Amino acid sequence: MGIIAWILIGLFAGLIAKALTPGKSPGGCLLTMVIGIVGGLLGGWLGKVIFGVDSIDGFFSLSTWIAAVVGSVLVLLVYRVVAVKRSR
Hints:
By secondary structure, the protein is mostly helical. Helices cover 75% and strands 0% of the residues.
């Protein structure tokens, strides 16, 4: 699967991650897309390193989407912690 597919998955994963995490997220639509792309790439890498699974089997593979959403949620939570500390 190419980088363009991961970017597309990341865009949707960012929206899903924002919907799954409670509370108000700092940032708008562009930040959500960036978080999704970074989270999708992170989720794919973590799935491969930690669990030894190839999470990039294909665009429509469930493991690919789960890895992207989990990675996006992680990046979003880290971003929230950093943004709250910076605002104080």
